[in-house]
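Colleagues,

For the teaching module next term, I've prepared a clean inverse folding example: a structure given as tokens, and then the sequence designed for it. I'd like students to try predicting residues themselves before seeing the answer, so please don't circulate the second half yet.
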């Protein structure tokens, strides 16, 4: 378990570097990420390199006992490169061409820029790949920051027909998949197919879903060029990328293939301000962030890479940890005292191997001059420095085994399903991540550890598997879910599961290939207006656990149970009174529940508690704002509230543990 910091030696006089490095070490930091925006200083003119300063920076940091994460500087191509390749500048989906003067100003599909970025990555790896201070690599920086994954420039447009051809083989297959007979949209060749961005009516859903896939793939093609250059030149050093919070445009599961570790950038306060949580919740957590919003990203990225056989997870880090105020949210409060230390503990409790603060010293100019660092502008300590030092001391006093155990519950998530919801929400409230985050929050409030995984992962060993919405379904998906049931798991399929084929044509009868598992067919679907809700009346035998009724909003699949499927709840909505809403199908010792509607949080809480109880999984009712993570015989309680609390861990074999306001507390617990 280590702490680190992001550092920009090129911003500061060389005379201050040694002292900076010594202060980092004195704070208890052991990793330092550098380089990711420094192209104009590394190569000030085409082919003229100035390695001297970077050599001295790497040597100096290494001599101080720090390990370097070397970032490739390709998120910020210098002016001369843009002048040489003017058509590398990106064009947004609205057709607007972006200019030089910020960052991320490139088209992922541009062949010349792919070559240039692979070349600078190779140059850096040639020079530092075997340097003893260099311990890891970061490729580029936050793909997609500033909304740059989904583009429409000339290179992107040119790459689209070839991508379609690779996917479909023959144009007839595309016409069939997108059902282009509708509205005379038929194509005679791949070259005729435009990006589905500027049709007068919405473009075909299949086309839009494919565009989302294509845009993500363009990033991956670009990215893999750099990985291929670095890998042979830097043996044994993990290669990673710093992914973004709640960023769905790039498929992180696909990104993870070929990486050794995944990292993400954790900015709890900005994340809260940008979230769709209600205003009163935002006000309550304004200075700490919401624990579950943060933790969802930890659990998503921890599960993003396919682990080696026998290992539950591959390494994940927090590459950028908010150290104080940020500059980019609509409003940017100072974190509560203790929040930076708490976020650090929370990340480690979720299995992070390294937590690295962004940034060492506040910038004295340019776009991020209002963003805090561990040090203030004048190099005096800011809140972040003392809290990072405190976290380092905590962790060295009581090291935590970072190989986090497998969670109590698997929550299935795929980017394709997120994209399908964006393409065809059908109900205004069907918003981005909310279908996955709502049940996640309910599970976390019960003290359960949750692994957010794609459904093709090995699910054996999980007693409860929750699939909030596996919207696109084919036989392969049905087969992998059936394997989980074979092991005796309870699988819950949420609303819209099995609505579409992978090409986004509807299944003639949902849930398509999932029907054997679920034992239901979907009749009609209801989309509810924002702010309106209805109720599921629960069958008498479940009222002691689920209550009289479960409130729902946004969506309802009207279920038609097959013979032998048990009904646990029926809609109490005038428009379809008495139709099945919650059903169970048994398969040997495995069970498949189908939940047709999007439950409100309280309903999710009750349902999750019932499933856990039936599966013999212990739960607790944690106080609001308090969360628990368990691993390797330790429990970490995280209190995001403003008052101390005492939490009873007896359900998990522990005792009563007091945890101060805005703080974490660790306790021994049987594993
Ligand atoms: C991240 C980015 C950093 C910095 C930071 C500010 O998105 O990777 O370079 O801009 O935000 O919070």
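(Answer key — instructors only)
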């Amino acid at each position: 378990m280590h702490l680190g910091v992001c550092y920009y030696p090129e911003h500061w006089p060389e005379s201050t570097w040694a002292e900076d490095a010594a202060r980092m070490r004195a704070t208890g930091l052991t990793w330092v990420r550098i380089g990711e925006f420094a192209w104009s200083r590394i190569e000030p003119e085409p082919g003229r390199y100035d390695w001297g300063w970077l050599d001295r920076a790497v040597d100096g940091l290494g001599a101080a006992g720090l390990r370097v994460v070397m970032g490739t500087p390709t998120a910020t191509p210098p002016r001369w490169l843009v002048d040489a390749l003017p058509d590398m500048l990106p064009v947004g989906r609205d057709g607007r061409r972006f200019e030089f003067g910020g960052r991320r100003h490139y088209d992922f599909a541009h062949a010349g820029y792919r070559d240039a970025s692979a070349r600078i990555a190779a140059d850096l790896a040639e020079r530092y790949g075997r340097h003893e201070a260099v311990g890891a690599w970061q490729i580029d920086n936050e793909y997609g920051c500033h909304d740059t994954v989904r583009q429409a420039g000339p290179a992107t447009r040119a790459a689209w027909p070839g991508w379609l051809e690779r996917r479909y083989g023959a144009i007839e297959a595309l016409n069939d998949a997108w059902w282009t007979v509708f509205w005379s949209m038929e194509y005679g060749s791949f070259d005729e197919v435009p990006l589905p961005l500027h049709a007068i009516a919405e473009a075909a859903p299949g086309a839009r879903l494919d565009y989302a896939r294509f845009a993500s793939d363009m990033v991956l093609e670009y990215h893999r060029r750099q990985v291929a250059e670095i890998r042979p030149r830097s043996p044994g050093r993990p290669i990673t990328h710093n992914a973004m919070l709640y960023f769905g445009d790039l498929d992180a599961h696909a990104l993870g293939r070929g990486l050794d570790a995944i990292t993400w950038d954790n900015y709890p306060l900005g994340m809260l301000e940008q979230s769709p949580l209600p205003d009163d919740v935002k006000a309550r957590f304004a200075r700490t962030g919401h624990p579950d919003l943060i933790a969802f990203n930890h659990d998503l990225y921890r599960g993003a890479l396919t682990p080696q056989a026998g290992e539950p997870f591959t390494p994940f880090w927090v590459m950028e940890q908010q150290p104080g105020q940020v500059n980019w949210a609509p409003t940017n409060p100072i974190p509560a005292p203790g929040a930076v230390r708490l976020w650090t503990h929370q990340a480690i409790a979720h299995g992070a191997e390294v937590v690295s603060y962004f940034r060492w010293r506040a910038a004295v100019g340019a776009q991020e001059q209002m963003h805090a660092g561990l040090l203030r502008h004048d190099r005096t300590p800011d809140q972040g420095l003392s809290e990072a030092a405190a976290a380092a001391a905590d962790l060295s006093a009581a090291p935590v085994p970072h190989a986090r155990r497998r969670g109590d519950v698997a929550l299935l998530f795929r980017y394709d399903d997120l994209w399908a919801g964006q393409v065809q929400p059908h109900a205004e409230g069907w918003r981005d991540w909310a279908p996955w985050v709502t049940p996640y929050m309910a599970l976390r409030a019960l003290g359960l550890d949750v692994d957010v995984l794609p459904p093709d992962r090995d699910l054996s060993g999980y007693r409860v598997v929750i699939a909030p919405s596996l919207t696109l379904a084919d036989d392969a998906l049905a087969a992998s879910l059936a394997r989980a049931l074979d092991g005796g798991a309870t699988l819950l399929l949420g609303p819209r599961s099995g609505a579409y084929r992978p090409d986004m044509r509807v299944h003639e009868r949902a849930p398509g290939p999932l029907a054997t598992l679920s034992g239901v067919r979907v009749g009609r679907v209801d989309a509810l207006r924002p702010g309106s809700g209805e109720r599921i009346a629960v069958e008498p035998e479940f009222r002691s656990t689920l209550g009289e009724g479960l409130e729902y909003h946004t969506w309802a699949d009207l279920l038609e149970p097959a013979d032998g499927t048990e009904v646990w709840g029926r809609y109490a909505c005038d428009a379809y009174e008495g139709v099945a809403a919650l059903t169970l199908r048994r398969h040997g010792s495995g069970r498949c529940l189908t939940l047709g509607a999007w439950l409100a949080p309280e309903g999710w809480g009750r349902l999750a508690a019932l499933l856990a109880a039936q599966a013999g999984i212990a739960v607790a009712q944690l106080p609001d704002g308090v969360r628990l993570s368990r691993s390797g015989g330790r429990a970490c309680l995280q209190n995001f509230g403003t008052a101390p609390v005492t939490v009873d861990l007896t359900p998990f074999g522990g005792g009563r543990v007091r945890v101060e306001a805005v703080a974490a507390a660790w306790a021994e617990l049987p594993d």
